[in-house]
Amino acid sequence: MGYEVLPRAGRTVGPRRLKFWCCRAMLIALAISLAGCSSAPMNYLDAEGPIAKQIAELGWGFIMISFWSTVIVTGFLLIALFKRRPPQLAGHEGTVTRSGAGLTAVYSATALSSLVLLGSAVWMVSVTAAVIRPSRETALTIQVIGHQWWWEFRYLSPDTKQSFVTANEMRLPAGEPVRLELMSADVIHSFWLPKLAGKTDLIPGQKNITWIEAPKPGVYRGQCTEFCGLQHASMLLRAVAEPREAFGAWWKQQMRSSDPPTGGLAKEGQAVFTRACASCHAVSGTEAKGTFGPDLTHLMSRAQIGSNLLPNTRAYRAGWIADAPSLKPGVRMPPMTREISGRELQAVLAYIETLH
Amino acid sequence: MQAPRHARYPRMADVGKLPTVRQRLDALFEPTTGWRSWLSTVDHKKLGILYIVTAMAFLLIGGIEALALRVQLAYPSQTVLGPAAFNQIYTMHGITMIFLYALPILSGISIYIWPLMIGARDLAFPRLNSFSYWTYLFAGLFLYSTFPLGLAPNNGWFNYAPRSGATWNPGPGMDVFALGMVMLGLSTTASSINFVVTLARLRAPGMSVNRLPIFVWGTVTASVANIVIIPTVSLAFAMLWLDRNYGTHFFDGYGGAPILWQHLFWLFGHPWVYALVLPAMGIVSDGLPTFCRRPLVGYTLVALSTVTTMMIGFGVWVHHMFATGLSPMAMAVMGAASIAISIPSAIAVFCWIATIWEGRPVFTTAFLYFAAMIFLFVAGGVSGFMTAAVALDWQLTDTYFVVAHLHYVLLGINVFPVIGGIYYWFPKMTGRLLDERIGKIGFWLSFVGFNAAFFPMHILGLLGMPRRIYTYQPGFGWNGLNLAVSIGAAIFALGMAVFIVNVARSLKHGRPAGNDPWGSYSLEWSVSSPPPPYNFAVIPLVGSRHPLWEEALDEVTGRSTLDRGLVLDHGRETIGTTLLDSIPDAILKVAPETYVPLLLSIATLVLFVGLLLHAAIVTAISLVAIVALVATWLWPRISLAQRREDTR
C-alpha cells in the first residue's frame, strides 16, 4: 500500500491535558460569570418578571442539556482519540482494516438524542405557550414607538383626555401586567428589557402586541437590539417600576401641561425654544408641537437624557443643546450653536429646567 | 441529442503498454505558458487554485476587519472606530466571510478535487467554470469598490429593510451591495449547475451514487440548494435596488412590507448556511477514514443525513425571525424543525467518532483539524439547539450568544475542515507536503485562540450584550469578557498567520509528496501530484467505494482497474455516464482554452457598473457585448460535437 509513516507527535499527553483543561476552564468560567453576575443589569438568566423567569428556567434547562451533551460527546471523542489500542506488528503500521461494528453505537446514540430532542421540543413549546399571553387582565396599554435613536411612549387610557406622551424613561406599575403596542416611526428596532421579558421588534407599517410585568419596584435596563443605524449602540432603555400609588401620582403629573415660566430668563428662554427647538420638540400647553424629537413636557422628571446615554444634569443638558453630535455621533439633533447665542443657551436652559 | 453520426466505441487498454497515449494527451491538453494561461484557462485544476487563492485572500481581508472590530470593542467607551466606520467594517466582515469566502472556498476545493475524485477530465462545462470564477472575483471587487471611499455597505450582511432603503440609507453603499449580490448570484448559480451536471454525467464507469465520496455528496447537495435559493436572494436584492432607484416600495413602511425582506432573505439565508457547511462536513467524512486507517462507519447514514439536513434546512428560516411578531403556530413548527435538524447532524458526528474509535488514528495536522471540527461542531450545534427554543430565543436573539453560535458553526464547520482539507490535498495540488511541525503549532494556536475568542461570547450574550453595537458603557459586566475575546482573536489570527507562513514556505521547500502521501483510498490519489492536465491517461473503471484500498480491505465484490481503462485520445475528451449506475453512454468533449468567459465576465461587470452609475450608454454597450460574446461562446464547432456511444 506504500503507506508512509508520518511523525507521530500528538500521541503524547500534551493535547489530552490541554483539552481537559480547556473543558474545565469553560465550565468554571460559565459558572462564575453567570452565578456571580449580580453586577450585570442585563443578565436574563437571573430574571425577575414572570415571563423572563419562566424563560430563564427553560434557559438553564437547555444550557444543562447542551453542556452535558457536549461533555459526553467530547468525552467519547477523546476516548476514541486516545484509547489504548493493541500494538501492531512491525512493518504493518498504517494497515487498513474494516474492523469493529460502530454502527450499533451510532444507532443507539441517535435514538437516545432523538428522545432528548423530542422532550426538549415539547418543553420549549409549552413554555412558549405559557408566556405568550398574560394570565390576568392587563392593567394598561403603552404604545412604544421606535425612533432613530430614542423611544417614544404613549400611555393610553380609555378616556383619551387621560392619555399622554413621554420619552425614553418608561414607568410601570409594579406587579401588574402591561400591554405593549410596538411600532416604529422609521426603521426596525427591537424592544428589550431582559430582566422582564424577551425581545419584540418594532416594525414600520406593522403593530406588534406583547406584554410585560415588573414584579417589584426598581429600575430595569434594556436597549434596542435590532441594528437601526449609526447610534444603535446608544438607543438605551430604562424602565422604572413603582408601587401603584406612586405610579398613579406620576401619571397625574405627566398629564399636566407645563406651567408658564415665571422668571425673566426662563421667559426669554421659552421664546428662544419656540423659535429654535419647537419644530422638533413638543411641550404640551405651548406652541411647541414638534414630533421629530422626544416630547420635553416633563423633561426634568427623567433621570437621563440622550436616550439614557447621559445623566440629566445641567452640564450635560447644556452640552447636549450646544453640540449633541459630539456626545452621540450621528444623532439627529443638530448642534444648536449656529442657531442660538451663548446667552440664549442660558435662557433655554433656564426654561427647560422649569419643565418638571 | 443528435443521431449518432459519429458513433464510436472507445477501446480498453493498459496505459503501461501504450506510451503513445500519454504523448497524444500531452499534446492535446498542453496548456499555454506564462501568466496569460491563467486568464484563458478552462482547466478545473487551475480554476480551482484561482478560486482557493482568491477566497483565502478574502478570508484574510475579513479577518483583518474582524481584528479592527475587536480592537474597538476590547474596552468600553473606546473611540478607535466611530459608529460610521464600525458599521461599515462589521458589514463588510460579514459580506466577505459569508459570501466571498465561505462558499467560494468550498467551490474552489470542489472544482479542483471533484473531477479527480470521480474519474473525469474536467467539470461538465469548463468554460462556464471559468465564467463562474471571473464573475466571482469581479463581484467581490465590485462589493469592495466603495470601501476605500468610506461609503461601503453599512447595514449588516442580512441587510434588513427599510434601513436598506434610500430614505434611511442614501449613498452608493446599498446599491453596490444589491447589485453585487445579483452579480455574485450569477457566479454561484453557474458553478452550482456545473456541479450538478458533472455529477449526473461525468463520473467514471462504475462510480455509482453509492460509491461517491461524501465530499461529492456535500457539494452536490449544496449546489441543488443553491439553484433553488439563489433566485430568491437575487430577486430580493433586485427589488431592493428598484426600491432605492425607482421608488417601487416593495420593502419600505409606506405600503411595502419590511418583513417581506426578512422572509425572502432567510428563505435563502438558512439553506445557504447549510451550503456553507455540508461540503466541509464532507471533507471531514472523507479525510477521517484516511487518517483512521479504516472506511467511514455509516457511509450510507452520513450521505443520507447530508441530504436530509438540507431538506429540513428549507423549513427553518423563521427561526431567524422569532422576535418579529409572527404567529405562535408558525414559530412553534419552525422551532421544532430547527430542533429536529440536529438529528442528521448528530448522526454525522456519531459516525465520525465511531470511525475514529474503530480505527487507528494517525495524528497528522489535517487529522487534528478534522478532530477539532467534531468538537466545535458539537459546541456550535448545542448553541443552535438553544436558539431554536422559541421563548428562549426571544432572549438570545441579536445578542453575542448568536455571534458565538454562528462563529462556532461557520469557523468550526467551515474554516477548520477547510484548513484541514488544505493540509490533506495541498500535496496533491502542488506535489509538496506542508510542514507538519509548523502545522501543529498553527493548529494549537488556532484551536486555543478560537475558543478563547468565541467561547466568552456565549457568556456575553447571556449577560445581555447586543450584537452590532460599536461601543458599550462600563457597568454591564461585559468588560473583562470583551477583553478576553479580543485577546483570543489575536491568538487565533496568529494561528492563521502560521498556516499562511507554512503554505508560503512549503510551496518551495516542502517535502515531495508522491502520488499518495497519506495512503488514501479515493481516485485522486491514483494520479501524479500535481496531476497532468488531462487527469487520467485512461478513464479508470471503479469497482468499489475505496478504489485504492480494495486489496487491503479484501473487497469481495468489486475491484477497480486504474491502469487499464477507456482510451479517449481523439481530442479533448472525457466519458459520459448514466445518472445512477454510471454506465458509459457518450463521449463528451472538453472545451479548449479561451478568453471568452473572461471577456463575458468583464462585460457583465461593466453592465453592473453601468446600472450602478445610471449610465445608460455604458449599460447598452455592455449588453451588446454580452450578446456578441454569448454568440461566440455558443457558436457550433465540430471539435466540440458530443458523440453518443451506441449501446453494445
How is this structure best described in words?
The complex is a heterodimer of chains A (356) and B (648). Chain A is of the alpha+beta class and 356 residues long. Chain A contains seven helices and twelve strands. Chain A has helices at 13-35, 50-82, 103-131, 244-255, 264-276, 314-327, 342-352; strands at 140-147, 150-156, 164-167, 169-173, 178-184, 189-191, 200-202, 208-212, 218-223, 236-242, 304-305, 310-311. In chain A, the strands form four sheets. In chain A, strands 3-2-1-5-8 form a five-stranded mixed β-sheet, with no helix packed on it. In chain A, α2 runs antiparallel to α3 (103-131). Chain A is elongated and about 100 Å long. Chain B has 648 residues and is mainly alpha-helical. Chain B is built from 19 helices and six strands. Chain B has helices at 19-29, 36-40, 44-73, 83-118, 126-144, 173-201, 214-246, 258-292, 299-313, 328-340, 342-358, 365-388, 390-396, 400-430, 436-462, 479-509, 550-553, 596-613, 616-634; strands spanning 12-14, 539-541, 561-566, 573-577, 584-589, 643-644. In chain B, α4 (83-118) packs antiparallel against α5 (126-144), α4 (83-118) crosses α8 (258-292) and α9 runs antiparallel to α11 (342-358). Chain B is globular, with a radius of gyration of 25 Å. The two termini of chain B are 18 Å apart. Chains A and B meet through α1, α2, α3 and β8 of A and α4, α10, α11, α12 and α13 of B.
